[in-house]
Write a structure and sequence with these properties.
Length: 536
């Protein structure tokens, strides 16, 4: 149930095994394989794959692929430790899968329309109407389970076609413009239609307990998420009307404490999103905004207070990952050290620690890499000479359309911030011929114009991790990184971001992290429900 993605299927990849937290719900034994066979009518690609996220906190995925034979047939065997969400990838089309040990599916579809023509059936079941009728009540447990998983994946394909691919049932692009009462009517109508769809299919077909809980949680929490984020999202999408004033009772639904520890929903991505969005909402209600220097420590403490078990561990981990990108490195280090004590089984810490390590070089509060580069006037300029001023650093090339578009906005920003301690520094990654043409240009560009010989291979580009342009970095008055990814000059919000940046480094330095709550290892497998969807 997500937008189409594209994967390059490398022949070197094979079947990969990953570890998950085992399910506490009834079902097939933990650990094993899922099998997927089938045939593609009029194939458009010669490879098909199943993709499973390697880790909740790692964007990389485990990929199992198979090549089609001359008849368009394929066979995939995927190692799975417990029930899990997956993606079936064919060319640039993707559909949802739900797999567990013992899944054995047959899939048929047309090569140019995977989402619209996918048909699932269970392998190894009696064939023919009368044979099925005669044996329907005498299926083995393995056969019944395969049929349940075929039903589950058929449901996902039908749900996607009826609701996800239908703009009328989505908040964007049109329904976000509604006012409060019509929007709530839309949400309530959608919730009712989706739940009726699930219950109708569940009455006609058999699902596993894990899948039913997963499907219901996806519906419940996607609608709760849309209600919770409506006001903020509408303000961004419909800026001409300003922030919509809501009735005092609009947010009454967040008083329901059930979601905080709804372990039966733990496989649902929408559930995990709702918990994180709730924490940020609760922080805003207590006058803590993302621009505040204590925002992430405050949210971390809130999540620790409200949540328990796996929901707590996962939500804290997601807050940590955002802190690695948007909070001072000293805060991130302290929060990560606390989290290491919570994650007693080291399920998520290794991935989070690796993520933190990769971002340390350009983390907020670390010293910005120095450079001394030639200017358009024939002089040189060192970054160290700009100490005491904000520096908005721009890496660009004259062959990039987005770069050229942003340059005009840089001139407007320079006029807007004239007289303030803010310097715009543009580093050209063109070859020497392109740079000389710029240097001799009669019109003046905004700020300081520098040239880094070697382009992407130059020391300056490598030091700042520039692999594509335009790339921007905001450097504080003390010479430390203030924002490794500030808003682009063409963004409507860039002026406000720059205005708030003055003196921010000093506020970071003055901030003292309050004591964190005592760290006790989380209990991850409550008897009340599964945690299989939260894979380490």
């Amino acid at each position: 149930m997500k937008p189409t993605l594209f994967f390059k299927l490398a022949p070197a990849l094979g079947i990969l095994l990953f570890h998950t937290v085992s399910s506490a719900a009834p079902g097939p034994p933990a650990g094993g394989v899922a099998r997927l066979t089938g045939r593609i009518r009029k194939p458009t690609h010669d490879t098909i794959a199943v993709s499973i996220p390697a880790n909740l906190f790692d964007p990389r995925e485990h990929l199992t692929y198979a090549r089609l034979n001359e008849r368009g047939e394929f066979s995939l065997t995927v190692s799975v430790a417990a029930a899990t969400k997956a993606d079936l990838v064919y060319g640039d089309e993707v559909i949802d899968l739900y797999l567990d040990p013992g899944t054995d599916l047959d899939l048929r579809f047309r090569g140019n329309d995977l989402p619209g023509t996918a048909v699932f059936a269970a392998n190894g079941l009696p064939h023919g109407f009368f044979t099925k009728l005669r044996n329907g009540a005498n299926l083995t447990e393995a056969q019944r389970h395969r049929q349940q998983m075929a039903n589950a994946n058929s449901y996902l394909a039908e749900f996607d076609e009826q609701f996800v691919a239908n703009d009328g049932f989505q908040v964007l692009p049109d329904n976000i413009s509604l006012y409060e009462k019509p929007f709530l009517s839309f949400i309530n109508y959608r919730l009712e239609e989706e739940l009726n769809f699930l219950e109708d299919r569940a009455a006609k077909q058999s699902f596993t307990a894990d899948f039913y809980k997963y499907a219901k949680a996806e519906i419940t929490y996607s609608n709760l998420n849309d209600k919770l984020t409506f006001q903020d999202l509408r303000e961004q999408v419909v800026p001409t009307e300003g922030r919509l004033a809501l009735a005092p009772t609009y947010y009454d639904f967040v008083r329901d404490l059930t979601p905080f520890n709804d372990f039966s929903a733990s496989q649902s991505e929408h559930y995990r999103d709702y918990l994180l969005n709730f924490i940020y909402f609760a922080a805003a209600q207590q006058q803590h905004q993302r621009t505040d220097v204590d925002f992430y420590p405050f949210c971390y403490s809130l999540a620790y207070k409200y949540l328990r078990g796996t929901p707590r561990l996962v939500t804290l981990g997601r807050i940590l990952q955002e802190a690695f990108r948007a909070a001072p490195v000293q805060q991130s280090q302290a929060l990560l050290a606390h989290y290491q004590q919570l994650d007693g089984k080291q399920l998520y810490v290794p991935t989070l620690a690796a993520d933190f390590g990769q971002r340390q070089q350009l983390a907020i509060g670390t010293l910005a890499p120095g450079f001394c580069l030639p200017t358009a006037t024939g002089d040189t300029l060192a970054l160290s000479s700009l100490r005491g001023k904000l520096v908005y650093l721009n890496f660009w090339k004259s062959t990039s359309g987005p770069c050229l578009y942003d340059l005009t906005h840089l001139q407007e920003l320079q006029k807007q911030f004239a007289g303030r301690d803010l310097v715009f520094v543009s580093i050209d990654l063109d070859d020497e011929a392109g740079w000389r043409q710029l240097a001799l240009a009669p019109h003046k560009r905004a700020g300081e114009q520098l040239w880094a010989a070697g382009g992407y291979q130059s020391a300056a580009a490598k030091a700042y991790g520039v692999q594509a342009v335009p790339a921007y970095v905001l450097i504080a008055e003390d010479g430390n990184i203030l924002n490794p990814r500030p808003k682009r000059p063409s963004s409507r919000a860039v002026a406000a971001e720059l205005t708030q940046a003055f003196g921010r480094a000093a506020r970071y330095q003055a901030f003292s992290l309050p004591p964190l709550p005592p760290a006790r290892p989380a209990k991850l497998t409550p008897a009340s429900g599964p945690t299989a969807g939260l894979r380490p």
